[in-house]
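User: Need the bound-state model for flavin mononucleotide:
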Amino acid sequence: MATIKILVGTVYGGSRDVAEHVKPELEAKGCRVDISEDPSIADLENKTLEGILIVCSTTGSGDFPPNFDKFYHQLQENGAALSQLKYGIISLGDSSYDETFCDAGKKMDAVLAEYGGQRIGRPLEIDSAEHFDATEPAGDWIGRWIDQLQQTEIA
Ligand SMILES: Cc1cc2nc3c(=O)[nH]c(=O)nc-3n(C[C@H](O)[C@H](O)[C@H](O)COP(=O)(O)O)c2cc1C
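Assistant: Bound-state model below.
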């Protein structure tokens, strides 16, 4: 069975709630879903996975949550072989942080693309100034994402 790994970067748990919310939708499409808050480069290079979904908030001033910090910096410094990786991004942020809105998700997207990963769909940016319940916009987005993922062959 195809496995999707969801890597969650969170400070207050909102991103975890989003991951738990989308999990049944992915399962309904025939996927096994594994949620982790302990991301590693090995997850990204794991060729047995159908895809990776990053669900990550931004903290500080455009910074990663502590559980994503080391992962991102290792990836940035050492690189990874990601030509087989299909991934999606859900970023949680707050537009009142204007200049750094959803920066962690943007940085993660950039580094995955730099090492050859293929992003599926547009990143979803969930603005907490607009959505009290972050799971609501994720519900609409995830159905389109999994359809696109399952239709995309890696060259
Ligand atoms: C101290 C602090 C700093 C934040 N900095 C940013 C930021 O730079 N950019 C942004 O888009 N959101 C920022 N946010 C908003 C969070 O990303 C947003 O509330 C998000 O929904 C939290 O998700 P989480 O519960 O998964 O951590 C910040 C929030 C706090 C409390």
